[in-house]
From TrEMBL:
InterPro entries tied to this protein: Cro/C1-type_HTH (IPR001387), Lambda_DNA-bd_dom_sf (IPR010982), Rad_response_metalloprotease (IPR052345)
Record protein name field: Helix-turn-helix domain-containing protein
Species whose genome carries this gene: Terrilactibacillus tamarindi
Gene3D superfamilies from the UniProt entry: 1.10.10.2910, lambda repressor-like DNA-binding domains
Domain HTH cro/C1-type: start-end pairs: 7-61
Amino acid sequence: MSIKERIIKKRKELNLNQTELAKRAGLQPPAISQYESGNRNPSYDALVKLSHALNVTIDYLVSGIEQEENITEPTEKVLLKIFQNSTQQKKQEILEYAFLSAGYQNQLNFFSTEPKQYAKHVFNVTLNGEFPIDIYKLAKKLNLTIIIGNLESQAEALLLKNNNTIILDHNQKHEARIKMTIATMIGHYLLPWHSQASYYYRKQGKSTLSTDNIDEIEASSFATNLITPPEILEKDLNEFSSGNISLKNLKHLADEKYKVSLTSLCNRLVEFDKDRFAVVNSSEFEVKKVFSGSLVIKEKYELNRNSKAYELLSTPSKVEELREGRVPANIWINDSENDGFLFESSIYNPTYKSVLTLLTKL
């Protein structure tokens, strides 16, 4: 079953038409129509919204659980029948041939259709649960060579599967971002059905949240679940289940414990509680990027002058600066009738002259 079929199935189970699903997810009806027709895949950001609206996980929408009755392609049905009726030894031979055809080196001897489960296996078995993740140690265990090269700004990294090599662009400097980059490349390397000879990371600067490429979404899912293991992360995020949430506390957690970027950890917080949080990136007094579940934020709008983000951009500091406090919800939420409040925690980055904002529903 494909992504479009899973969306249609869950929408019909909830007795929603495309317009109703779009409204519930904070998307446009034409987008739902395109997703369900298969003309385009939803981006990761859209998958977060759809998972909330359909009351399913992102993993389900991306990977699902294939059942024999859901397989419609005749050749796939025949292959499944051959596999099911084979001896254990013959199954192993078929699997090894499939791996050989796909150019896959079965180093893990682990089988699943979910990237999240591969990440869990790598963390618990390959790395023996060692935390925080040493991504270079993992690459070495997998016989992957990491080299620095000039990708001429075409991408931040390139995986050459047949050569067991990851090339990092020489312009990459931020260690947390490099860690996520390598983890994503390892995801492409380890997921058996990722059968291309090479994979790029953030090709031509494309955001990982806006991509609609399923392989990229799956590799990103592997990376985030590896670097921020759910069994550890959920215990920390439970501490943010109530009250005003400050980026100051999240930044300490990101820097000191997980060794990841603040944006990455904030995005995980949104996934953890889609009803309560939203992450906004802004610069030049405009909302540039939004990552949210049920909170429908005014994306591509000019920043409201009463927001903390606007204040920070109005008086830019030469050092990182945090401003936070309660603000009227209609400053941010795309609903003029909303008369509630949000807690806004915004931090200014002087290097990029931009603001990262975490919004908490009160």
